[in-house]
Amino acid sequence: MCQLLETIKCRDGILFNLEFHNLRLNKARHEKFGIEEKIDLKNRIEIPENCKTGLFRCRVIYAKEIESVEFIPHQIRKISSLKLVENNSIDYHLKYVDRKILQQLFELRGNCDDILIVKNGCITDSSTANVIFFDGQNWWTPDSPLLVGTQRARLLSEGKITPCKITVNNISNYKMVGLINAFQDFDEMPIIKTERIFQ
Fold it and tell me: Are the C-beta atoms of residues 81 and 191 closer than 8 Å to each other?
């Protein structure tokens, strides 16, 4: 059976952004398996004593029901350059455990630290994060992400970022790009100058 995944930030015994993880998990269960009954992750995750200090990835693997919960120490990668990689058929709108297609694209990064995936001329995501672009005044996010991330959803709900069409041809309109995911918000995300995005 197809397995899905939620990766939740756990810092010093606190699980972050559970509201948005719950929304995505339950939406995916409904879409994939037709299940109406909701799961509340707050009632399904028990943090081990040895994971209550420090930064951990809480990996919730599920299908119709939750199959496993594990905690893995987490370190944020340093990223200072991005390579544009094109794939017009990729579909990753659900967060699958199987990331084979993303890994294959990541292997095309050359000398860069990560990739920006281009689909039909539009910027989507990096290999592990949604992206936001700064034009000197405001932060914008592509309206065509591969995966609707929980951090992106939260920042949109707070009005801190705005969706718009971002293409390969208009990247030069922006000064910087930030990579956001469950572990990387405005305060902790890698920020890369757009001149460090390579074809």
Answer: no
pLDDT of 193 over the 90 cut: yes
| 109 within 8 A of 77, measured Cβ to Cβ | no
The DSSP 8-state label assigned to residue 159 in this structure reads T
Sheet (strand 197-198) strand order: 122-123, 114-119, 82-86, 197-198
Q: Work out the average pLDDT over 142-146.
A: 97
How high is the pLDDT of residue 1? 59
Burial 155-169 (b: 16+ CB within 10 A, else e): beeeeebeeeebeee
Can you say whether residue 151 is alpha, beta or left, with left for phi > 0 and alpha for psi between -120 and 50 degrees?
Answer: alpha
Total residue count of the chain as it appears in this document: 199
Non-local (6+) Cβ contacts of 4 within 8 A are 25, 28, 29, 32, 61, 62, 63, 94, 95, 96, 97
Residue type, 172: S
Q: What is the pTM of this model?
A: 0.94
pLDDT at 180 exceeding the cut of 90:
yes
Cβ atoms within 10 Å, residue 75? 8
Q: What percent of the chain has pLDDT over 70?
A: 99
